[in-house]
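Folds vary. Our protein:
___
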Amino acid sequence: MASSSSSGPLEPVDDLPSSCSPACHHPLKFIIDIGLTASHAESKVSPCQLADGSPSAEVMEPEVTLPEDILWKIHALMPMQDAARAACLSHSFLHSWKCYPKLIFDMRALRKQTSDFINRVDHIMQNHSGVGVETFKLQTHNDFSVHPSYLDRWLQVAVTPGIKELVLGLPMENKMKYNFPGSLLSRERAHSIEYFHLSSCTFHSIGKVGCLISLKTVRLHNVGITEEELCLLLSNSFALEHLDLESCYDIRCLKISHLLLKLNRLDVESVSLWVRIHLSKPERLLQLSGHILRGKYQQRSTLRFLSPATAISV
């Protein structure tokens, strides 16, 4: 069990805990049980219950006459909690749950212990087809610790063609030393990603990253990545508009290529950088914030320093 009192990460398991009753194995029962908002987490009544309050593992099928593609679109527009409730009531929605596009798991909002949170996320991801995912967010807190094979498995399901937002928020102080697999960002898998946020891991297999033609925002917080690796990542991200670096201590010098024509904001926190900026258009506006020790600019350009930014041109 991986909790704040545990001595090591949770080892991988093949099945859910034996303490779960058969009724709990319903794919949507897990989502209902964890309570996707604080108020629902405190509720004592499960939406998957009969009128008399007794639990039901059966899925009730109302009369549904809409075409399947319309039902799937309606289901995709629902918040995760409502989508889970709908799937408890309809076989059609239960089927579309396997392609639900917004997989958002926030450990702080769910108020769950680490082992319980991991089991539920793992169960949901194992029941997802991997088709249709647009958003995958995993936000944890300091108690979180898990075997890397869990993260690998979840990301393999989530990062598929069509995904637009990928957030992996691991705790600032953890002993997992997770290395984000660059192969997940191949052109075939990740060409549609627009927002990419990593926290508290390493990212060294940049050579396997493809050309991320849709990537607009990159946020790296407490990520182990070298200057060369970051430059390689940026060189494949021609649509990049916003780069946010926080506590990336292996980076001391950052080169901004003239090929990043759309880059208009650079945020740097908890680390001091020497920045070399090559701008192809003198009239370009670039917003800088954080601890920019000094910068070298290829051409005269308009630079806006956002408080508390400091910079020295050389």
Remarks:
- The chain has ten helices and ten strands.
